[in-house]
Each structure stands twice: as C-alpha cells, then as structure tokens.
Specification:
This protein is α/β, with parallel strands linked by helices. The chain has helices at about 10, 35-45, 65-70, 85-95, 115-125; strands at about 25-30, 55-60, 80, 100-105, 190. It has a five-stranded mixed β-sheet, with helices on both faces. Helix 3 links the parallel strand 2 (about 55-60) and strand 3 (about 80).
Length: about 190
C-alpha cells in the first residue's frame, strides 16, 4: 500500500508493540549538594536508556554552595524553587517536565546503569494493551521491578551478625541492585 493511500490516523497511532521509547524526565531536588550532585548526574548520564529520551531537571532550593554551577555542567534545566522538597518536586513535574514518565531522585543517589530502562519497560508492560486510561500518577517501587539481568557482581556471603539484640537478623534475600547510597532509587515514578 502506498503512503498516499493510508488513512491519516494509521500514521498517527502506533501499535502497542512499537519500538519507540518514551521520554522520561528525571527531577533531581537539591539544597547545598555540591559534594553529591556531580556523581548523581553522572549516574543519570550513564544510563543504558537512550540519552535523547532522558530529560534531566535539577530543582535547587537556593543553595549557597556550588550545587547550581556543577549541575549546569550536566543540564541546562536548572531551576530555583523552595521552600521544601515537595514544592521542588511539584514544580519539576508539573511545570517543567516534558516526559511521559517522571522520576524523582535525591541528589545523593547514584542510579544503577539500567534502572531507567527497567522502570520504563515495567511501566510500558503494565500499560500495554490496556484500553483504559492510564492513571495520572503511578507509584513504582523497587519491589515491583523484575530481577535485573545486567552484569551484576555475584553475591557474597559477607553478612555480619547483629551487633545487638535489638537489630533484626540479616536478610537472606538478594540485595536490590536498584538501591543507592541513601535509599531506594526512587520513591515513586509519575505517569503523565
């Protein structure tokens, strides 16, 4: 069939199996994070997900150190907003982000190289074939992600026994590769 014979809607709508990847916006909130922001943004830049499909947004709470200066080396989308982290996140997601998905990341987090790809894949699979509208916000935690298939180092049995009776015993579960220095890589992801 010649392109001129195609119905206009057949050109505009792609099947759910399309290989096109959606843009994902990553909102990083900061306040005097000059010691951490560089490593955080490097880990976002090192993602296996296509770089042209990742939008990095830094929302700074009027830092008095070099946080903004360092952030500008990685993205031109650096904004000032306060007074607290929730206002920063809301501003980044509602006023700036252009992506289908929005991730919130703290400045002291270092992302695993395949985390954006794994999250988008998981969300796309959850929404594939669905004829119902996607909720405005979906929360994705690391427990809902499939096990990683990347080149992770083998597990070691270097678990230390509890140092006091108040500490819980060490878990025999494999530690999640989706964690950072501080906590789970993202507390939620929003679907726009």
């Amino acid at each position: 069939m010649k392109p001129s014979n195609l119905h206009p809607q057949s050109i505009l709508f792609l099947p759910p199996t399309s290989t096109l990847k959606p843009t994902t916006s990553i909102v990083v909130t900061t306040k005097n994070e000059e010691k951490n922001i560089g490593n955080c943004l490097k880990s976002i830049r090192a993602q296996s997900y296509p770089h042209d499909k990742i939008e990095i947004i830094v929302v700074d709470n009027f830092s008095t150190d070099k946080t903004r200066e360092i952030a500008l080396k990685y993205t031109d989308k650096v904004y000032s907003k306060g007074p607290e982290r929730s206002a920063q996140r809301n501003f980044g997601m509602m006023d700036i982000a252009k992506g289908k998905y929005v991730m919130f990341v703290d400045a002291d987090m270092i992302l695993s190289p395949a985390i954006v790809e794994a999250c988008v894949k998981s969300l796309e699979q959850q929404n594939a074939g669905s004829h119902t509208p996607v909720p405005k916000t979906q929360y994705l935690t690391t427990s809902s992600l499939p096990p990683p298939t990347s080149n992770l180092p083998p597990l070691t049995s270097n678990l230390q026994p509890p140092t006091s009776p108040l500490q819980p015993p060490p878990s025999n579960q494999r530690p999640s590769p989706y964690t950072s220095q501080k906590s789970s890589w993202a507390k939620n992801i929003s679907v726009r």
